[in-house]
Write a structure and sequence with these properties.
Order of helices and strands: EHHHHHHEHEEEEHEHEEH
CATH class of the largest domain: Alpha Beta
CATH topology of the largest domain: Rossmann fold
Distance between the termini: 16 Å
Number of strands: 9
Structural class: alpha/beta
Bound molecules: nicotinamide-adenine-dinucleotide
Length: 236
Amino acid sequence: MSKIIIFSGAGISAESGISTFRDSGGLWEEYDVSVVCNHDSLEKNESLTIEFYDKRRLDLEDKESNYAHDIIADLKNKYPNDIAVITQNVDNLFQKAGLKQEDVIHLHGFMNEVRCQECSDIVNIGYRSLYDSNNGFCKPCGAKLRPNIVFFGEAAPMYEVLNKEVQDCEFFIVIGTSGNVVGVNMIAQFVEKSILNNYEQSDAIDDVLFDKVLYKKATDAIEEIAQDIEEFLSEQ
Ligand code: NAD
């Protein structure tokens, strides 16, 4: 387990042109998320749900990592055992910044992947439509494929990994999340040292629980954060 957790949300990818959940504009507004992101979406609105994720997957193709992803990737590559990169994001911008798939813990799934609804076999389909992968059926078992994304109301198996990482965490860094989905307050209370970086205050985050608070763009905050990480590790 790592001493440092870098925990990110939609805000870290905002400057790469991927809209956050609550921002206006973008794909989130074209669709009713309660219709296409819910635990019963595939049952009730299968084609619309698949279309929504197909569009979001395609939308990632021309997106580039930004300075914040790039610096975090460099830090993780430099200190692979000391840093855990944990994200709520389903995009592939940490991978585009140079991290291997296994170096990023995606709590809510990964947009480039589809998963069999029966045998859970996972296939990376890049930016293609789900239907372009064996007509939407699992090759090993023949059952239907689905986006490998955690929908609202579904279990998130990777939360167990987050909980394990938190046990050994000494330095918790939060970047670009409103804290509405994963409660970061509890973790900040639990660890010795913490930083919060968001563009603006969130009602769901009690910023007095953090040792340092940076309300600015992630690309403007990341150098200071990287310096704090380097200092923390040099003191160990
Ligand atoms: P959110 O939309 O609820 O909150 C975004 C936060 O980022 C806000 O607190 C805002 O102040 C901050 N922010 C915006 N621009 C920023 C910037 N340039 N620099 C730093 N901070 C910035 O996002 P969330 O908390 O991650 O929750 C949304 C859920 O939706 C997550 O579960 C996530 O999986 C999903 N989602 C993912 C993506 C993605 O993969 N890129 C995009 C949208 C939503």
